[in-house]
Amino acid sequence: MSAGASKGDTDRRLGRRALLAGGAAAAVGAAALAREELSRLWWRLPGVEKSRVAGAVDFRGARWVAASSANYRRADRPDDYPVDRVVVHVTQGGYASAVKVFQDPGHRAAAHYIVRRDGRVTQLIRELDVAFHAGNRAYNERSVGIEHEGFVEHASSFTDAMYAASARLTAAVCARYGIPVDREHIVGHAEVPGTDHTDPGPHWDWERYLRLVRKARGAGAV
């Protein structure tokens, strides 16, 4: 499952009041904000935040169930953070329990999606936003996190329906951001630097999964 957020994950950067007052640079003891940092803050100014539709999903057919706003950081990806990774997780529990913890503001972590054993997909955080799912700030900012209902120690958790649905989802994400379909760019939570998690575990069939993702990508999954 998604790791708890690090201190850096929950850093909301400079407050709007400080930015508008022109005192942000002084507050951090710097002469001026870097251009890159300004590009990541522009959408916080009144009137420039990207319009959002309540309940909208990024993957056709997904069900929307909102995670707690404490478990992600609002952003405008890929304009402020390029997206070049998909991180595969396993919930270590059932679907309902995963949703419950992702809606708990004290959990401080959540993924963008959950794929159920029967193949149904739930989206909890917009891909625009930085989900606290990987336990690594840089990876959170650059990736989409996909949870899978089940347990790493149970091969039976990973059903045909789950593999097929998750592959279509990952193919759509890869198409949207131009992410190569390979093991450098589609990784397990255990492979994220600094994590202490083991998911998706030894029973996750990477060869099968990538084959399905490539097939869905070739078929134009959206």
Automatic annotation (TrEMBL):
The keyword rRNA processing does not apply. Gene3D superfamilies: Peptidoglycan recognition protein-like (3.40.80.10). Residues 72-201 form the N-acetylmuramoyl-L-alanine amidase domain. CDD domains: PGRP. It comes from the Bacteria. It catalyses: Hydrolyzes the link between N-acetylmuramoyl residues and L-amino acid residues in certain cell-wall glycopeptides. InterPro entries: Amidase/PGRP_sf, Amidase_domain, NAMLAA_amidase_2. It is an enzyme of class 3 (hydrolase). SUPFAM superfamilies: N-acetylmuramoyl-L-alanine amidase-like. SMART domains: Ami_2 (SM00644). This is N-acetylmuramoyl-L-alanine amidase.
